[in-house]
Amino acid sequence: MWISDSLKLIPLRSSKSPFKILQSYEINQHGLICWDATLVAIKYVELLVEHVPETFENRNILELGAGTGAIAIALARFCRERNVETGYIITTDQGVCVPLMEKNIELNLTNEKEVASSGEHKEESVNRETTSSLKHAKVPPNIKARELLWEREDQYPQNVADEKEHVDVLIVCDCVYENINIWKNLLRACWKIMTQDTVLLLIQERRGKKDALFFSIIADLFEIVQVPRDQQDTEYSSDDIDIFWMKKREDANEIDLESVLRPISGNEEVREDETTE
Asked: How much is the pLDDT for 266?
């Protein structure tokens, strides 16, 4: 059941027209809100497209746990405005999120006249009738929103008929919470989707002691480079939000993923002296 929706406007360096994200405050759907880490990610991606466009040029891009779809949609818009060609851009989450992601694609990537015809957008509430319009969003051909559940290998791009090409850039933002079993599924999905050449852009807000456990696991699986603050947006960055670029370790073929994950249970205790720093 949709309770209420609101439109968030994000100012951009690259355009006079703000980035528009429709959110939904639906019960138990925290991913349908544009949290701080998402804002940091959007502004970082904007800088990359502006200064290092080859990061995404001719690349196939997949976002997991996208919620509103904000990061992948912003990336598609930045690339379009700067004439940076990409491969496919796919924003994914649970099926309940897909209509909202498609609406956000429509808000940002359809013809400017179509968007303007709906009037100037402000922070506002939208009634439940919004759901009917979400079902008919117009989706540009180079980006799409669809369901991808982390435990469903048949939904991974390499197993979907029109997405057979491997993923070049995988994006994961703010998907690590206290439930360890959930982020174990996330790591399984990342590992199985990624090739040796895939790069993973991970943006994560630090929240508690279990963060240390997560980062100790990914260190056993990936080569990790943290993005320093001076390479992020000067206004949209935070000491509590980290950005990482990751690749599978060179010895990935010798790593047994389940052996890395098996010792970790949902009730795993984290020592008091462990931190994510």
From this structure: 52
Of 24, 21, 35, 32, give the one whose Cα is nearest residue 240: 35
How far apart are alpha carbons 252 and 191 in whole angstroms? Answer: 9
In contact, 217 and 265? CB cutoff 8 Å: no
Q: How far apart are CA 167 and CA 156, in angstroms?
A: 10
Write the CB contacts of 200 (distance below 8 Å, at least 6 apart in sequence).
Answer: 169, 170, 171, 172, 190, 194, 222, 244, 245, 246, 247
In the chain, which stretches have pLDDT less than 70?
1-5, 14, 26-31, 111-141, 178, 263-277
Q: 122 is written with which tokens? A: 């402000």
- Judge contact between 57 and 31, C-beta under 8 A: no
Other C-beta atoms within 10 Å of 150: how many?
24
Dihedral sign for Cα atoms in the order 159, 54, 38, 18: negative
Quick one: pLDDT at residue 57?
Answer: 94
Give yes or no for a contact between 60 and 166, defined as CB atoms under 8 angstroms apart: yes
- Tens digit of each residue's pLDDT (9 = 90 or more) over 129-181: 443 444 444 445 589 999 999 999 999 999 998 787 899 999 999 998 767 78
The two three-digit tokens of residue 5, written as one number: 């929706």
- Rounded-to-integer distance, Cα 229 and Cα 110, Å: 33
